[in-house]
Amino acid sequence: MSDLTSLTLKAAVDGLKARAFSSAELTQAHIDAVAAARDLNAFIVETPEKALEMARASDARLASGAAGPLEGVPLGIKDLFCTEGVQATAASNILKGFKPPYESTVTANLWRDGAVMLGKLNLDEFAMGSSNETSAFGNVINPWKSASSGNRALTPGGSSGGSAAAVAAQLCLGATATDTGGSIRQPAAFTGTVGIKPTYGRCSRWGIVAFASSLDQAGPMARTVEDAAILLSSMAGHDPKDSTSLPVETPDFASFVGKSVKGLRIGVPKEYRVDGMPAEIEQLWEQGIAWLKDAGCEIVEVSLPHTKYALPAYYIVAPAEASSNLARYDGMRFGLREDGANLTDIYENSRAAGFGAEVKRRILIGTYVLSAGYYDAYYLKAQKVRRRIADDFDRAWESCDALLTPTAPSAAFALGDKSDDPVAMYLNDIFTVTVNLAGLPGMSVPAGLDANGLPLGLQLIGRALDEGTLFSLGGAIEKAANFTARPEKWW
Ligand code: GLN
């Protein structure tokens, strides 16, 4: 049954409806694939019994004609989503053993539509990282390797490294992920998968462990643009339990895939031509521009003049919000508790033992930039920069309908290469954080391989709530790129 794992999500939905195979068969094939791929360390928790139980319930609904849009489809869930009764850790020791008493809205929406849960996927601790190396459960290994660079173990990107690796290695038909500064798009680019961060407010944040609440947004990762569209239509929707969730209808995003992009104006922001970017990424970008031109788009050069301030502003705003959000982990209510002589000692010992180094760094930075005397110089200034960045995009929309950029400044790098240098790690997010700061939708589509045979992605950025256009453009790039490469199975 191993060929069932190579289906697209769309083909699986159709096959299940046609009763070509059962959800129990499809799910078992994925459970076996997950068990055979433990070397990748993509899953923190596997839930095979739960998966089979959900699959059998799906088969019953399929038989009675009551199937939902994702009926019987096995998915992986980033371990940042609360799942009722199933451990949710945010890849942190401080939440080890925490079993949420409730379900996140996004995952509840997926189960409502019939999806099956295979387990919880690894990530950077509290989603802080770009390489999945800050996880308390160990790093994930990218299924892609490069013989020309010695077959070293590579990062799948981060923070949604488990989601990206699991989708790329065909351990699930799609996965949930979250993106605060690029954590869906960069891992998608590093693994040859499709990832979209929707408009801020498109998906409910209720039940997702908070990192930086004004930036966090959930989205899907999948192997095709259409699959990502199908997943997002289920995940999204207004939720009164999240006051930042937008009260808008969720379109049938899949209906945008394959639609003509003729006449769309595509902006190419000149500030994204950064120094030191590999020539191959420049070339791929040029290639993407040519593909969209061939598809009938008009290409315009645009300027986003405050781009260079985005990364420093992000690395003030995100830690500031994180330092506040993570104050709740005090050893009292959730997960780990260390002993101490008094309450303060318990707090301090629990936090010292429970948080990893990167999380501590963020809490320190965040507390500093919010403290009296520094608030105006850092946090307030960063908020002003954020406004300017959003204004840059608003101006760009006067002359174009979407933007095309590279997703990341490099292909997947080797594990360990940047883990001692936080600034080098943060530079990975140079093309992605602007989108979070402005609250816009951004998608990464696999577009080619570099000289070492590793995947590279192109990023499409759209107007707020205009994911539909991104799905049409993503579909056009996917068709032109004809990206069929898959990692060789070594695990
Ligand atoms: N790499 C970024 C960070 O560490 C983004 C993380 C994310 O999007 N969750 O903050």
Verbal overview:
The chain has a domain at 4-261: Amidase signature (AS) domain (Amidase signature (AS) enzymes, Alpha-Beta Complex), CATH 3.90.1300. The model has no long low-confidence stretch (mean pLDDT 97). It has helices at 9-17, 23-36, 48-64, 105-112, 161-168, 185-191, 225-235, 279-294, 310-325, 343-354, 357-370, 375-396, 422-427, 433-438, 467-481, and strands spanning 43-46, 74-78, 116-121, 174-178, 194-197, 218-222, 265-269, 298-302, 402-406, 442-449, 455-462. An eight-stranded mixed beta sheet has the order 4-6-5-10-11-9-7-8, sandwiched between helices. Strands 1-3-2 form a three-stranded mixed beta sheet. It is globular and about 65 Å long. By secondary structure, it is α/β, with parallel strands linked by helices. Helix 4 (105-112) links the parallel strand 2 and strand 3. 37% of the residues lie in helices and 12% in strands. The chain has 15 helices and eleven strands. The chain binds glutamine. Glutamine binds next to loops.
